[in-house]
Specification:
It is a single chain. The chain has 189 residues and is mainly alpha-helical. Helix content is 47%, strand content 3%. The chain has five helices and two strands. The chain has helices spanning 22-39, 46-49, 61-80, 107-125, 144-170, and strands at 133-135, 141-143. The chain has a two-stranded antiparallel ribbon with strand order 1-2.
Length: 189
């Protein structure tokens, strides 16, 4: 049987984040957005994930998965934690940060690399205070809190792109690949 992107269940219910600590709120929103991007691909075959469906843009769902792995690595591991790690797919110096060079044959591998990178980024931030700072590559003092907020906005923006890409691929809309309404995603807000 050919590989398809696996189904995703949200482990974080946004309605549960209303009164938690700031750290839990930031981690929860980031987790929710990560899972949402994966859910936009759920059930698709690799060839569908590499289609450019919103012309003239060259964005693809698999490109977004690759891009977010690269962006997570850049901010959490290379910038904040100071790890001397290379690129996941490509790097900021090439200007596309993983968006280009997608190949349907690599979809399963790329999904695995994304999940591995997310785990490594969570480990890089674990145990560190949100107020802990680092110097950016451009000489700007930033905090771990800033990285979380940046990543949440980055996913929110790209999840909007993924909405259009998925709808143009097979007509699916909403938070999951089944077209079902995911009522519990927001809880009872």
């Amino acid at each position: 049987m050919a590989w398809t992107a696996p189904p995703v269940e949200h482990t974080t219910q946004l309605g549960d984040l209303g009164t938690v600590t700031e750290r839990h709120m930031l981690e929860g929103w980031l987790s929710w957005h990560r899972e949402t991007l994966l859910a936009k691909c759920a059930g698709l075959e690799p060839a569908q994930m590499v289609q450019t469906t919103v012309e003239p843009s060259n964005l693809t769902l698999l490109g977004l998965i690759r891009h977010m792995a690269e962006v997570e690595r850049w901010w959490f591991r290379r910038s904040f934690a100071g790890e001397a790690v290379g690129n996941v797919f490509t790097g900021p110096s090439d200007g596309d940060e993983g968006l280009d060079g997608v190949c349907a044959d690599d979809a399963e591998r790329d999904f695995g690399l994304f999940r591995t990178e997310v785990g490594a980024c969570d480990e890089a931030a674990a145990g560190h205070d949100l107020d802990e700072t680092f110097m950016s590559s451009r000489g700007v003092l930033l905090s771990l809190r800033w990285v979380y907020v940046l990543m949440i906005q980055e996913y929110a923006r790209h999840n909007g792109h993924a909405d259009f890409l998925r709808e143009r691929t097979d007509g699916t809309t909403g938070d999951c690949a089944t077209n079902a309404v995911v009522e519990d995603s927001y809880g009872k807000l």
